[in-house]
Amino acid sequence: SPDRLSITYHRLLLGMSIADMLWSLSNAHFNAMAPSDMSYAVWNARGSQATCSAQGFVAIVGTCSGLLYSCSVNLYYLAIVKYNKSDRYIRTKIEPFLHGVPIVFALIYSITLLVNQNLNTSMAGSCNFPVYDPPHCIGYEDGQVREGFKIPCGRGRDGAITFYWVCFFILTFGTPIVIGTSLAMLHRDVSKQEKRMARYGGGAFNPSATQHTTDSAAAADGNRHSGLSSSISSVISSVRRTFGRRSSSNSNQEHSNSRGVMHRALAYSIAYFLTWSWAIIMGILWQAGVPIPLAIIYLSSIFTPLQGLFTLIIFMQPKVMSAKRSQGGNLSWCEAIAKAFWPAGTVGKRNTPDRGTGGKKNTLDTAVRKSSEIEEEKTEIQAHQQGSNDLEPSHPTYVAHGAKEINDEED
Length: 411
Fold this sequence. Notes:
mainly alpha; 11 helices
């Protein structure tokens, strides 16, 4: 994208993608990092406890941060649609937490497990189990090393077992609850907007437009005996009507974009559940001591590595559709995909935000028209009224005076 990392949405996707890459890399070793002590049960186990701990550390960081970044994306959409937060507010007040919570939680979790020796291998070759308790340790006390092996039995049993399981249950049950709740709140808010639109039309989102028209008529009637005052009132009325139409049009656009944002959040939520549901089911069954069906194991092995692909499809889908429509539908799907990935004129170029605006060219963040912006338009009208005593009505500066003050205040 030409916007690159100038917008919050792209920065969140970058964090999610890095987390996915870490998890994928931690599982791309073909069991070679599993301790050689487990070679009788794990295929291609050629490593040591050090390599196993390293693999488990990276896997925990990637898994935790990836799950929590999925929550961050949904919360970001919730802040835009339901709470109408401005780009600046999201960037300065909310985004640090959307990045900080996944990163800090993942690092604290993985470092604690590493220090307390709670990164151990399992019969599957992964190294994210809290206690080392393989079959060859049956009949041996914790700390004993069976002849011909190197790793002591029961390694990690005196570590942070409680901490491990608390974090495990937070990730297992907390993340789907957050994603599901935020998605339900988005759907409820958009449904309310649709009901208001169906009942009252576009004016339901612009209650100030009718008031503007009424005030305009009253001002014109009160000043009908004064030529200059009537001219000033006419200019003010024209400005009010203009902003009223803009507010109504932007409200309709806001409703349309809100539903589009909700669909995007739904797509990321579905990708999350498709990716992690099978692994979560495996963890629950394993904790309950129930044998894990082979079908669940295969489904987990197939879908868990696909989160990056799902993210790419969701991100590129609107771009591909736009490219397909750009030539009147004459492009093939392959050509549309190629055009979406390499749009003409964007290679090597960067859409740098204007100085002082903090990235207000953000096409995604500004897609939804926020109520705070409508309030700024009303402030502009008030500025027009205050400036009418100092400026000639016919002077071009009169029309831009209020907007300039708003921009100066924002800068």
